Amino acid sequence: MSLASRISALASRVGLEVKTKIDATHPGVARAWVCFGYVGTQVVVRASHNVASVTRTAAGRYRVTFAVAMPDANYCWTALARSSTNSGTQRIAIVRSSTDQKTAQFVDISCATTSASFSDSSEINLTVYR
């Protein structure tokens, strides 16, 4: 048996083992994700999983509604935003303000400049884990 055959057989066995341990209920698998942005005068959703809608509530502020609700509000989310200009003005996904909400049905996220003023972005990527 050649080295390539042995490596192939080993990779196959590892794949079968991992398949039995990680499924859709594993906490390391994203429960929802979305790639969207504010382009022109509208929210554009480019791709998503378990996201029913994205609504702009104000400049740089968005509500992401899940297609299937989370079991509770004890989930983790992370987001990244792309700069909407080439002027060096960065956009960041920031910690929610006290008026933003996080429920089993939706999460409010904010996008801001580095000076912490709310600002839209042409691309925001959100991932939710539970």
Report on the structure:
This protein has a 4-stranded antiparallel beta sheet with strand order 2-1-8-5, with no helix packed on it. The protein has a 4-stranded antiparallel beta sheet with strand order 3-4-7-6, with no helix packed on it. It has one domain. 22% of the residues are buried. A hairpin with a 2-residue loop joins β1 and β2 (42-49). The protein is mostly beta strands. It is elongated. Helix content is 15%, strand content 43%. The longest helix has 19 residues, at 3-21.
Q: Helices, strands, pairings?
A:
Blueprint: H1 3-21, E1 30-39, E2 42-49, E3 51-58, E4 61-66, E5 76-81, E6 91-94, E7 106-113, E8 124-129
Descriptive tags:
130 residues, mainly beta, 4-stranded antiparallel β-sheet, 15% helix
Offer a quick outline of the entry.
15% of the residues lie in helices and 43% in strands. It has one helix and eight strands, in the order H-E-E-E-E-E-E-E-E.
Averaged pLDDT, please? 87
Domains, number:
1
How many helices does DSSP assign?
1
Tell me about the largest β-sheet: 4 strands, antiparallel
The share of residues in extended strands comes to: 35-45%
Annotation, overall tally of beta strands: 8
Global geometry: elongated
Q: Strands of the largest sheet, in order across it?
A: 2-1-8-5
- What is the string of SSEs from the N terminus onward? HEEEEEEEE
Task: Please state the CA-atom Rg, rounded to the nearest Å.
Answer: 19 Å
Distance between the terminal alpha carbons, to the nearest Å?
Answer: 44 Å
Low-confidence stretches: none
Helicity, in percent?
10-25%
Structural class of the secondary structure composition? Answer: mainly beta
